[in-house]
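Summary of Year 1 activities. Much of the first year was spent building the evaluation harness for sequence design. The harness presents a backbone, in tokenized form, and records the residue chosen at every position. We chose the following record to illustrate the format because it has been used consistently in internal testing since the harness was completed.
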């Protein structure tokens, strides 16, 4: 059993008695998002199935679900791998984020809004930055945007963004300087939170749109450099 797959044995308890492919996919999605299985890594059916104590058929169904979410790819006669994004994928992810996240803020209705989750994510990011845990800052930032989308009260939108943000983290794991990538957005998260606390939806949407546009440019350029792929024609 490989060292990486061996660590999954700790997650076996999460499956409970009613082990399903969806629960296995949840575990693997989290591990991929955390960088436990980095982009380009091959996933061994034998090692992972043994670590989690699930059948090959269950594991293959979980792989199929994550392939549908664009987190994994199946290569004929080679196996299943964590997907390596193209630069165009990163750009498309940000287009999707802008469409969805800005629409959520625009449609919030009348204040006050339920902002405890957003506030907790901001505090999480600040604590991680204080400890110089830049991967933790990245995780807190993802939590901030998931909490933002959760304000819509839509399980379908939550599910959509869970996949989009997990896919985005595939790009984050390739870029070396996590601090440069994530630190600038700590203050901007606070600004969006402050605008929503004041009931200023239009201001919050403008801040969010600029935030996502800037992040799209910054992450796209850093990712293109990391994978040595041009950003344009």
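For this record, the design step produced the sequence shown next.
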């Amino acid at each position: 059993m490989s060292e990486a797959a061996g660590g999954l044995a700790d997650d076996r308890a999460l499956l409970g008695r009613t082990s399903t492919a969806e629960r296995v996919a949840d575990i693997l999605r989290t591990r991929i998002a955390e960088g436990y299985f980095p982009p380009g890594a091959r996933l061994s059916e034998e090692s992972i199935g043994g670590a989690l104590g699930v059948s090959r058929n269950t594991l293959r169904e979980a792989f199929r679900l994550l392939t549908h979410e664009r987190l994994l790819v199946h290569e004929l006669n080679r196996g299943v791998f964590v997907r390596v994004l193209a630069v165009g994928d990163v750009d498309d992810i940000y287009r999707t984020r802008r469409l969805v996240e800005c629409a959520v803020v625009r449609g919030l209705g009348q204040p006050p809004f339920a902002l405890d989750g957003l506030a907790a994510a901001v505090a999480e990011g600040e604590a991680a930055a204080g400890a110089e845990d830049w991967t933790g800052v990245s995780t807190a930032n993802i939590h901030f945007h998931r909490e933002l989308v959760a304000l819509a009260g839509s399980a379908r939108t939550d599910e959509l963004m869970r996949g989009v943000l997990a896919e985005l983290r595939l790009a984050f794991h390739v870029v070396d300087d996590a601090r440069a990538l994530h630190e600038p957005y700590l203050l901007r998260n606070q600004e969006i939170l402050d605008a929503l606390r004041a009931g200023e939806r239009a201001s919050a949407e403008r801040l969010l749109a600029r935030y996502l546009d800037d992040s799209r440019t910054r992450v796209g350029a850093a990712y293109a450099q990391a994978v040595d792929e041009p950003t344009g024609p």
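The CA atoms of residues 127 and 160 lie 28 Å apart. Quantitative recovery figures across the full test set are reported in Table 2.
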